[in-house]
Design a protein that fits this description.
The protein is α/β, with parallel strands linked by helices and 419 residues long. It has twelve helices and 14 strands. It folds into two domains: 123 residues, Enolase-like, domain 1; 269 residues, TIM Barrel. The longest helix is centred in the middle third of the chain and has 21 residues. The structure holds 2-phosphoglycolic acid and zinc ion.
């Protein structure tokens, strides 16, 4: 076979699930084969994430990405012509070098990631391998001993919904012999939850990630409703089904006052008080994972949280680590969290994402591959989750096609590998 050489790269401005612009790039080889990828965008973004390039002009309230698209069609495209598409590290290092900034603010993490992912997809097409197998081979990953389980965000709050709750995500973690069985159980719980919320008098609306978005009396009430839904599904709490929370606490933390302000309870809490609340909730409900329980730079409190709950449950850093290897290393040193959320667009290239994952694995941190609140139907992260043997894939609820694209891709791969 001839070498898979890049002939040209092109990008377009497309819209994501919030109707906001994002970048889609296509890599074309000299033999005409091509692959494309679209990048997602978060709304509860962390302060330490790589930066997106936005037009800041009138169109789309400043969120247009024509500048980012122009970078792909210009500087980036020019530099990649003639390179081998199956040399992902070389492509990614070229992208990093062209950008030349630590936060990707020159070319934009959105332009860079679109090309990085499109290159990997094109290489997998050229090599006639499913993407997850190509990723395993290309990064020399060990054969994974587990298949990702769905981390399904069935109740949306905070920035992802128009309701009144501070906690951003209430997740169902369904067990089951196969991935398909886990999905079926999750769907059953969602059906029951809909009935419970209807009965409670809520209009059935969904948030950005496809989960229901009811008004609640307290953050705890979400867990109460989830427990009822599990019971009505004839499943056993703590046995068949556990819960996860993404609190996204940076969003309700006041840096000046060092206080977490919880709604709708209207409670101003210190980190220690909030940690005690988590301990109570973990004692009362089968919560197995807790993401961003504290703000992104509240390192000392993260250490305390991990001391208190880290032996019992999975403590995940999202905004805390922002998929950055340096921040993860800081966490490992200071014993903050025991798991990391993996979002490629927080760092900018696939190679850097894999370096962060390798660091996590070497230090016994679990990995959860994740979507963003603004998504397209691109399903790259499903293959990534399988390739690295991620503990979970976090892709929202089982509603809205941009969420289902990922869970459905896992159904397909699960059938292929017998998971
Ligand atoms: P975001 O939310 O994509 O809006 O940042 C997802 C998350 O916090 O995990
Ligand atoms: Zn999060």
């Amino acid at each position: 076979m001839a070498h898979p050489t890049i002939d040209h790269v092109m990008a377009h401005e497309v819209l994501d699930s919030r109707g906001e612009p994002t970048v889609r790039a296509t890599v074309v080889l000299t033999d005409g084969q091509r692959g494309a990828a679209s990048v997602p965008a978060g709304v509860s973004t962390g302060a330490h994430e790589a930066l997106e390039l936005r037009d800041l002009a009138e169109r789309f309230a400043g969120k247009g990405v024509r500048k980012a698209v122009a970078r792909v069609n210009g500087t980036i495209g020019q530099a990649l012509i003639g390179m081998r598409v199956d040399d992902q590290p070389a492509i990614d290092h070229k992208l990093i070098e062209l950008d030349g900034t630590p936060d990707r603010s020159n070319l934009g993490a959105n332009s860079i990631l679109s090309v990085s992912l499109a290159a990997a997809r094109t290489a997998s097409i050229f090599s006639r391998l499913p993407l997850y197998q190509y990723l395993q081979k290309s990064f020399g990953l060990p054969r994974p001993d587990k298949f990702p389980r769905p981390m399904c965000n069935v109740l949306n709050g905070a920035k992802h919904a128009d309701n009144n709750i501070s906690f951003q995500e209430y997740q169902v973690l369904a067990g089951g012999k196969t991935y398909a069985a886990q999905i079926e159980r999750t769907a059953r719980i969602i059906d029951e939850l809909r009935e419970i919320l209807r009965h409670h008098g809520d209009r059935i609306l969904v948030g950005d990630e496809g989960g229901f978005a009811p008004m609640l009396e307290s953050n705890e009430q979400g867990l109460e409703f989830l427990s009822q839904a599990v019971a009505r599904s004839d499943l056993r709490l703590g046995d068949d089904v556990n819960f996860g929370l993404d609190v996204a606490a940076s969003e309700f933390y006041s840096i000046e006052r060092k206080i977490y302000l919880l709604q709708p309870e209207v409670r101003a809490m210190t980190a220690a008080e909030l940690i005690s609340l988590y301990q109570e909730l973990v004692a009362k409900y089968p919560i197995k994972t807790l993401e961003d329980g504290l703000a992104e730079d509240d390192w000392d409190s993260w250490k305390l949280l991990t001391e208190r709950l880290g032996k019992k449950i999975t403590i995940i850093g999202d905004d805390l680590f922002a998929t950055q290897r340096d921040r993860l290393n800081q966490g490992i040193k200071s014993r903050a969290a025991n798991a990391i959320l993996i979002k490629p667009n927080q760092v900018g290239t696939l190679t850097e994402t894999m370096e962060t994952i390798a660091t996590a694995r070497r230090n016994g941190y679990q990995c959860v591959v994740s979507h963003r609140s603004g998504e397209t139907c691109d399903d790259f992260i499903a293959d990534l989750a399988v390739a690295i043997g991620s503990e979970y894939l976090k892709a929202g609820s089982l509603m809205r096609s941009e969420r289902l694209a990922k869970y459905n891709r896992l159904l397909e791969i699960a059938a292929e590998v017998g998971a």
